[in-house]
Amino acid sequence: MKDQSKTNQARSESERRKVEQALKESEENGWTILENIQEGYYEVDLAGNYTFFNSFMSKIFGYTKEEMMGMNYRLYMDKETSKKIFRYFNEVYRTGISSKVDYEQIKKDGSIIYMETSVVLMRDSFGQPTGFRGIVRDITERKRAEETLQRAHDELEQRVADRTEELIRVNEELRADITDRKQTETALRESEERLRDIIFSIVDWVWEVDENGFYIYSSQKGFDIFGESLGDIIGKTPFDFMPPDEAKRVAAIFSEIVANKATIKDLENWNIGKNGKRICLLTNGVPILDKEGNLKGYRGVNRDITERKQAEEGLRESEERYRALFDHSLDLVYITDFEGRFIDANAAALNRLGYTREEIHSLNFASLLSDDQLLLAVKTLQEIRETGIHKSIMEFRLRHKNGSDVYVETRGSTVMSNGTPVAIQAIARDITERKRAEEQLRESLEQLRRAVETTIQVLVMAVEMKDPYTAGHQRRMTKLARTMATEMGLPPEKVEGLRMAGVIHDIGKITLPTEVLSKPTKLSAIELSLIREHVRLGYDILKDVESPWPLAEIVLQHHERMDGSGYPRGLKGEEILIEARILAVADVVEAMASHRPYRPALGIDTALAEIEKNRGLLYDSHAVDTCLRVFREKGYQIEGT
Q: In sequence order, which residues have a C-beta less than 8 Å from that of residue 192 and are 6 or more positions away?
């Protein structure tokens, strides 16, 4: 049973470590993703104060993490922008629907940048809103590129208009003035080249499509994104680069936009590059209209947001893995605050304790404990709060909703947020069946102990009826042996087994003739050989007695000696049971110090001198030292000597 318990404990420890490792890897993966995405990630409370953000966030704003922590987002924008963002957050709070908004941001150095953010509402385990989390990116380059593009376009249109007027005027007035026409063409060409240079330097993909959606222009970035050549993009539609389902979805959206001649705003779409790589693009565009207002096509920019989408998916998968571990664990997993109030519990905990999720939220861990375990619970919570983890496995007896006992082994650790402990998470193993089995084993052992005690008493009575002298010797020797064993620090169970064996260690003598046992003269060799057989005879009497202790073996060995000169098997040193080695010393001391039928008592000093002389040779050194100490230092006396 003890080996099985150790196996169960080892399995429990192994499973716990797997769960903890999984939890740890999940948290590390999430943090690594957040720290490496090229977007800002942040969390604010309902008042707009920053409670968490990644390093890229502080890099965008130009502040250190320490400066930004706890500051309100309104400090980074002017009054009108602040009102705009407040209305945006309020709309997300009211509807729970996430959207995107762009705005102007004031950096630490006073410069203005353009930002774009999308947020979702955060809720606690009770479903109550606690704040917002979002992703923000710097779109300054895109805004400036759009402005530059628009200015260049306006300039180009103006130049064309000017050129047209100039050509008409020149044609009407100076048809022969070729020089002016060449100069105008050169200026127009230079303007177009400047526009191309600007477009080429933009990090996003600049494109144009005609009224049917076919590409008629693409900047170099488009070729870089798809790994295509000019001929592989021009003449195709955006939907040619999308998976079928995605193409169908985006085409429906685009059709509606075209029908309304509307602006394309933050349209996310998945594409497949030439090498099969999945690419997520964020599309923004404006309609191109002729003078009559007819749609001639669209001009826009695409930004590659693949890394950001992969980071978002990684975060979601990390949370889903943790929730799966939490909900599907066979062990009881629960989370409490530092006062012991339940915040969450998995299905295994709810089922084993008999509560619903709503009911467990109204309970405190202490309410499930008996009064005698409250102090232990308080100490455990204090240790977790101070050290971050409870190193040892604690055993608690919890009350089921129906009043029955549920025994668990549990270990807890703190849940961290932004480096601050916010709750306690514990994993508990249900050991109710094991505790019941242990209790049944204790009851069985107690019944066996009582049965053995009764058997021993019967044997003692038999010895007393056969030979009162032997019975007295056994009682006195047992008292001395038990005193020695206690002084030597033997476990209580071994001391009890020693006592049982001591009171019947000469039980084999009841089979010997009375005249030999009480012979007043020296025994003959045959009689001495007969006396020596009492250990085997005692072993035969006791070997079939069911007992928690090796009574028969102790009785058989109590005349063995450390150097192998004893009987009946000539055992040496550690081959002899410690109980038998203690009995051997106590037996010699009591026998020499007490009266014998064939001689008077030799006295306690003579007895102690005998064991001291043969210490380590015939008798166990520790047992001898202990026996000498209890007599010489503690004043022990043998009854009747």
A: 156
Residue range 291-306, pLDDT digits in tens: 888 999 999 999 988 8
The stretch 490-511 carries a mean pLDDT of: 85
The percent of the chain in helix, strand and coil, each rounded to the nearest 5, is: 55, 20, 25
Among 526, 547, 368, CA closest to 449:
547
The span from the CA of 468 to the CA of 472, in Å, is 6
Quick one: average pLDDT of 149-161? 71
Residues 318, 189: Cα–Cα separation, whole Å:
54
Evaluate if residue 180 carries a pLDDT over 70: no
By the 8 A CB rule, do 276 and 177 touch? no
- Report pLDDT for 473: 77
Question: From the DSSP assignment, how many helices (H) and strands (E) are in the chain?
Answer: 23, 15
First CA to last CA distance, the chain: 46
Q: What angle is formed at CA 277 by the lines to CA 273 and CA 280, rounded to 5 degrees?
A: 80
- Percentage of the chain exceeding pLDDT 70: 73
pLDDT value, residue 197 = 47
* Cα–Cα distance measured from residue 214 to residue 208, given in angstroms and rounded to the nearest whole number: 8
539-592 residue pLDDT tens:
998 888 777 889 899 999 999 999 999 999 999 999 999 999 999 999 999 888
Q: How far apart are CA 331 and CA 318, in angstroms?
A: 21
DSSP for residue 596: B
Residue 106 burial (C-beta neighbours within 10 Å; 0-12, 13-18, 19+): middle
* Cα 341 from Cα 218, distance rounded (Å): 60
Instruction: Calculate what percentage of the chain has a pLDDT beyond 90.
Output: 23
**129 neighbors 123 (Cβ within 8 angstroms):** yes
Identify the top-confidence range among 19-28, 200-209, 515-524.
200-209
pLDDT number for residue 577: 96
SS (H, E, C) 80-144: HHHHHHHHHHHHHHHHCCCCEEEEEEECCCCCEEEEEEEEEEEECCCCCEEEEEEEEEECHHHHH
Please tell me the distance from the alpha carbon of residue 167 to that of residue 482, in angstroms, as a whole number: 127
Nearest to 16 by CA among 325, 335, 339: 325
Q: What angle do CA 471, 552, 638 make, to 5 degrees?
A: 35
Distance CA 167, CA 185 (A): 10
380 CB contacts (<8 Å, ≥6 apart)? 390, 394, 412
Sorted by sequence, the CB contacts under 8 Å of residue 482 that are 6+ apart come out as 495, 498, 499, 502
Contact assessment for residue 572 and residue 563, using Cβ atoms and an 8 Å cutoff = yes
| Contacts with 371 (C-beta within 8 Å, 6 or more apart), sequence order | none
Give the Cα separation of 630 and 641 in Å (integer): 16
Half-sphere exposure of 500 (CA within 13 A, CB side): 26
Selection from 441, 438, 413, 415 nearest residue 428 by Cα: 413
The token pair that represents 262 in the structure block: 């509307």
